[in-house]
Design goal:
alpha+beta, BirA Bifunctional Protein, domain 2, seven-stranded mixed β-sheet, binds glycyl-adenosine-5'-phosphate, 2 domains, five-stranded mixed β-sheet
Length: about 450
Amino acid sequence: MPDTRNDLMTTIVSLCKRRGFIFQSSEIYDGLNSCWDYGPLGVELKRNVKEAWWKAMVTTRRDIVGQDASILMHPRVWEASGHLQGFTDPLVDCRECRSRFRADHLEDTKTCPKCGGELTDARKFNLMFKTFMGPVEDRSATVYLRPETAQGIFVNFLNVQQASRLKLPFGIAQTGKSFRNEITPGNFTYRTREFEQMEMEFFCYPQDDEHWYEYWKNERFNWYIKNGIRNENLRLRDHEKDELAHYAKACVDVEYKFPFGWNELEGIANRTDFDLKKHSEFSGKTLAIFDEESKQHIFPYVIEPAAGADRATLAFLVDAYAVEGEGKNKRTILRFHPALSPIKAAVLPLVKRDGMPEKAEKIYNDILDNGIATFLDINLSIGRRYARQDEAGTPYCITVDSQSMEDDTVTIRRRDNREQFRVNAGSAVEQIRKELKEAGA
Ligand code: GAP
């Protein structure tokens, strides 16, 4: 392992580039600060993270449905939600070196941590990105890139509830891009200006809010553990009263022990009836629902687990990273949960002759036809190809060797313990499917 936690982050950033997980955006133009692109392995990993979230939050639940709202919304949405007035960070500038900082991230708000120069007084900086709708760039055409997906759920609340005939308690989930003009983005994909969220608003009877708050706290913590994060690297941290967002009665962060310290992965907030009431007031259309039990209209309370797809992907990457052995035998492994692995099974002919590549290709095609993410690797020594797959986090390798050409069997190698066993070539796909199922993928 690298010597320090900082070295670990540098190593992971360079592994991500070398293996095609994550690249700096617009790199050939010297990059665009805080923007990152996912390469072939990274896009699969992130899609698998989002898929695992969607499966846990929507597909396997009777009480939650999904939606996909647009990024641009009516500007009044952000007045009602409080973002136009209150979605600000305190910004200070250094009078000497002109560096900018978030005042709430500094211990000494008077002195520049870079050059020791004097800092300005803090001023409020709104984090929403502005743009114009249509050809005329004036105030009336101003629209905002959404800073959270949540508001798309609140404004659609009645549409979704009525179309799906949902009764309390129920949830609406959404994944999608959000944008924040962060003052100090950084730590790779941890804090960026464009990122993807995975949010669910769970609507319940006001008197049940504390029950559902506890419920979602546990569910969300356990989701990360189930998908491979080690228990010792995950914790829950309750927000202090003065940390709470303007809409929240309570909030807890799921935190991960990143190489740069414990930091938020996801927030679970009790948003009360704040948003539904505000949108009713600002739009003039009530978002209260008729409750059959009490025979009156009520505004449900909302419990919101709000996660970041990029942050979760980074945490899964960091947690999966392991180095084994010494010197020539040293190898890097990404021990992803098989559900998250970009490639599930690689097919490797031992040598590039004697009919082995053709036989390997047949198995590869079989796996492809079964919709399982696979990769055919023919070049280099077998040891280096295994190492390459370990580094990509591939849980299984299927090898075609000289025995395969005699008795039509192949070996299956498990990434985590390097155990190998033989199966009939014709049942290799079935075996991979069984292994994945047993691993919960
Ligand atoms: N709707 C509530 C909400 O947006 P949040 O805590 O501000 O709450 C939720 O954001 C999650 O979105 C965070 O826990 C984080 O995972 C992700 N997120 C927020 N800002 C981010 C940023 N600048 N870069 C990457 N992810 C971010």
